[in-house]
Amino acid sequence: MPQTAPPFAELLANCQRSAVHLEMRDFYDDPDEAPRVAAWKAGHRPDPNDRASWWRPWLDMVAEVVSRGVVMRRARIVSEPVSEYTRYLYDGTFTNVAAGEQIRWLPRRNASDIALPGNDYWCFDDQLVRFGYFSGEGAYLGDEVDDRPEVVKLCASAFEAVWDRAIPHDRYKI
Fold first, then answer.
1. Which pLDDT score is estimated for 80?
2. Average pLDDT of the chain?
3. What does the pLDDT read at residue 67?
4. Is 57 helix (H, G, I), strand (E, B) or coil?
5. SS3 for 68?
6. Maximum Cα–Cα distance across the chain
7. N or C: which end of the chain has fewer CB within 10 A?
8. Domain DUF6879: where (predicted)?
9. Shortest CA distance to 131 belongs to which of 5, 17, 29, 32?
């Protein structure tokens, strides 16, 4: 049964083989991210040569997890033409890739025949799913974890279907 999720860092720290993330929204309204989005709108772009200025502590956590041999993959289903927020994500994704995360993009029109869960999620080691809940305006509302085998199987298979069809970040152009 769904239950309140432990802290995300704890879930990632306990991960042994794989952590996959499926994002299906065109906008997230994260107050912690707002200053980075505002800076991007003003013309600032992450400097590939200034790793110290990149998104912390997230990228440090990614690098640590990947260094332990965990494969981290993220797939984003996006509407096209892309939203302004998706452009912001796209412009900064090279930092995630540099930290060791593999990222692919799937135009929403190419996902119509894939059975997808109703919410974004992380799936850890094909054993546990962490669903994230958002308002219609993109505000984070909370999360739950679920370890029921049928839920984990649905999420794992949905992710793989998206991943197989999605375009690697270095080849996706907006």
1. 98
2. 95
3. 97
4. coil
5. coil
6. 46
7. N
8. 8-173
9. 5
Tokens of 92: 């900064």
pLDDT at 41 > cutoff 80: yes
- Report in angstroms the alpha-carbon separations of 2 from 97, 128, 129, 152: 31, 10, 9, 11
Cα distance between residue 126 and residue 137, in whole Å: 30
Predicted confidence (pLDDT) at residue 1 exceeds the cutoff of 70 = no
Residues facing residue 77 across a β-bridge:
106
d(CA 73, CA 162) in angstroms, rounded, equals: 11
Token readout for 91 is: 């412009």
Alpha-carbon span 90 to 102, nearest angstrom:
13
Task: Convert the pLDDT of each residue in 87-101 to its tens digit.
Answer: 999 999 999 999 999
| Token couple for 169 | 């970040």
How many C-beta atoms surround the C-beta of residue 69 within 10 A? 9
pLDDT of 55 over the 70 cut: no
**Considering only CA atoms, which of 105, 111, 101 is closest in space to residue 83?**
105
Q: Check: CB of residue 154 under 8 Å from CB of residue 119.
A: no
70, 18 in Cβ contact below 8 A?
yes
Q: Give the three-state DSSP class for 70.
A: coil
